[in-house]
Amino acid sequence: MDINLRNSIFGIADDADFKNMALAIFEYQYRTNAVYQLWAKCLNNTPETVSQLTELPFLPVEFFKNHIIVSGSEKTQKIFESSGTTNSSVSKHHVTDLDLYAESFIKTFRMFYGNPSEYIITALLPAYTERGNSSLVYMVNSLIKMSNNPLSGFYNMADNAFIDNITSPVNGKKRLLFGVSFALLDLATKHPDLSGSTVMETGGMKGKRKEITRHELHKTLAEAFNIPVVHSEYGMTELLSQAYSKGNGVFYPPPWMKIVLRDLCDPLTVFTEPGQTGGINIIDLANINSCSFIATGDIGKLLPGGGFEVLGRFDNSDIRGCNLLTENFM
């Protein structure tokens, strides 16, 4: 790893800093990541020809299902895997620096919510805790430990003490509940009064329930829990950074993460202007040891002030152009 680059990731002050860091990391990953270098060459994007964020080559997230995406020569410390159905392969993220991942999510949490020690942190993540290789569980478990509270922890709906623990008054502590969408909807049927708590949905119906829009989900949960808004976390197995929404489905990333969009009909055309809609490409500078430039399967809209909305996902017919590029490469 380039130590100077690593040490500069969390010190970004403005757009110029971000651009310079992104171009430096692109050059580093082009040199040290054989898969990414070959992809960039296929698109005729090299460090000699790329000078703007919109010119960067974004690796389709599907590559994590079939390739080991690692930059540099450090050994893998942990492999995070995405959740998947029995009929689909899963993404595998080979993480060579767990301390870097922890630094990213802890700094981001403190930026948006404060110190974890201020909270009782509980989690309803059954689809993830069943597996031992979830990056979300790793993050939440670390935050739970940092809360240093006996009521913090992972729960399931069968735990008789769960609702008592999340509804009983506690002096001097704030409450934060992480939950996968279908588990929160199950909890909503019991209508616990969570007024004063922060409820954080992490997505993930995964076939457990009928898919509904985020707006419908949040409206149902807010009414059932007697809270004004539902918060959200936007992250991916393939990344080391997350964006957070404090309501209304508007996400904001930390300074070392940026969302740019690709044209829905031409995946190689990228734009950064607010108000436009397109496929979500993510620049995650903390992902320096893997790939910092990922083309996701999500559709989003850029908003003024650096925020963005997630509007849905591509279906197979929508990503034909991207699929053709991927299939030709593989």
Write structural notes for this entry:
- The chain is α/β, with parallel strands linked by helices and 330 residues long.
- The chain folds into two domains: 3-76 and 255-329, Luciferase, domain 3; 100-234, Rossmann fold, CATH 3.40.50.980.
- It has ten helices and 15 strands.
- The strands form three sheets. It has a seven-stranded mixed beta sheet. Strands 1, 11, 12, 13, 14 and 15 form a six-stranded mixed beta sheet that branches. Strands 2-3 form a two-stranded antiparallel sheet.
- Helix 2 crosses helix 3 and helix 8 packs parallel to helix 9.
- The radius of gyration is 20 Å and the shape is globular.
Please render the helix and strand layout as text.
Blueprint: H1 3-8, H2 15-32, H3 34-42, E1 59-60, E2 78-81, E3 92-95, H4 98-113, E4 119-124, H5 126-129, H6 135-147, E5 153-154, H7 162-167, E6 174-179, H8 181-188, E7 198-201, H9 214-225, E8 231-234, E9 243-245, E10 251-252, E11 257-262, E12 270-271, E13 277-284, E14 293-302, E15 308-313, H10 320-329
Parallel strand pairs: 1-14, 4-5, 4-6, 6-7, 7-8
Antiparallel strand pairs: 2-3, 8-9, 9-10, 11-12, 11-13, 13-14, 14-15
Largest beta-sheet details: 7 strands, mixed
The second-level CATH architecture of the largest domain is: Roll
**Count of helical stretches:** 10
Low-confidence runs = 316-330
Total domains, how many? 2
- Described by the principal axes of the CA atoms, the overall outline is globular
Order of helices and strands: HHHEEEHEHHEHEHEHEEEEEEEEH
Regarding quaternary structure, how should these chains be classified? single chain
Give the strand content: 15-25%
CATH class designation of the largest domain: Mainly Beta
Mean pLDDT: 90
- The name of the CATH superfamily of the largest domain reads Luciferase, Domain 3
Strand order of the largest sheet: 5-4-6-7-8-9-10
Radius of gyration: 20 Å
Q: What is the structural class?
A: alpha/beta
Distance between the termini: 27 Å
Query: Quick one: how many beta strands?
Result: 15
